[in-house]
Amino acid sequence: MATKLTAITSPARLVMSAAVALLLIGTGIWWISTDPLADDDATKIPRRVCDGRISGSDVKPLLPTHDGELKTETLFFDKLYDQGHCELSTENEKVLITVDSVPVYRYPRESTQRQGVPVTLGEAYGFLSDKHSLHLYVPCRVKAETQRVVVGVSSSLHRPDSESPPARARPAAGDDEVAVAAANIAREVTGDWLYCPRADKLPPGPAHIHWP
Fold first, then answer.
1. Is the four-CA dihedral 134, 139, 144, 145 of positive or negative sign?
2. What pLDDT digit, counting tens, does each position of 85-99 carry?
3. Strand-pair category, 124-128 with 117-121
4. For residue 89, what are the β-bridge partners?
């Protein structure tokens, strides 16, 4: 015949268990309230930046997660000028985004890419400079056949510390993040802002850096 065993718990053990549970709960509350990386201390990136032209998610990987308040300065991010200059800065780092649409000048692919490490994104082309800023020339034949929208993206967070960079950039941490941001921003401004023909033909994914 099976025998049913009943656990006997003493009042003292119950009191001790309750005390331990309260201690753990109190420790958790203290840790959350004093955690230096708590969300309350995180640098907050708005949903849209640069006068609403660019998604905040595009620039978030280019900025530190905990570095004070985000400040933004914009200039000419207006359809009237077809250009823009936007600087986003925290206490110690900054991101610079430039957009320039000029139909007058020509931007030959080969000579343009010789300015740094060649970069491509479908029909768009450009270069990564010695300071690891990425410049993407996107065909935008609205006013002239030679018209290009030039998108520039740089991040001090992902810039090499060397004061004397080599004449040609070498692979560095953060290049992939800059390539992703530049491609996203190029797709966004040439489509939703400047309405470039074939803007929707730019392929998904990051700009491709052609390292030698």
1. positive
2. 999 999 999 999 999
3. antiparallel
4. 71, 94
